[in-house]
Amino acid sequence: MRHPHLRSSGTLGALLIGLLLTGCASDQGAQDAERPSFAFSGTVERVDSAARTVSVTNEDVPGWMAPMTMSYAVDPAAVLDQLTPGVRVRATVYGGDFSTLYGVEVVP
Ligand SMILES: [Cu+2]
Known about the structure:
Number of domains: 1
Helix content: 10-25%
Radius of gyration: 15 Å
CATH superfamily: Copper binding periplasmic protein CusF
Order of helices and strands: HEEEEE
Strand order of the largest sheet: 1-2-3-5-4
CATH class: Mainly Beta
Number of helices: 1
Number of strands: 5
Bound molecules: copper (II) ion
Oligomer: single chain
Largest sheet: 5 strands, mixed, barrel
Structural class: alpha+beta
Strand content: 35-45%
């Protein structure tokens, strides 16, 4: 799914070229280790138990995404059961991946 808020096709083009070069230089297949990671934090707005997704309003993540509310899959999937509207979460996100929050933790 395309992220709806990419500001310039130049950024996307550079990203795609980067991915291609990465693919040529290495066949490790572990994309996450080679992409920039960002610390994500935000507030849960809604949980869709059937779809196993959560709608989160994020704080600004410079270089990744400005504050907005979007729907994500979560990893580990089991953490979804701890999430309810209003809960604050921390996670790790990766450059170019706007669909999944990784290592999700509830902020006490
Ligand atoms: Cu967004």
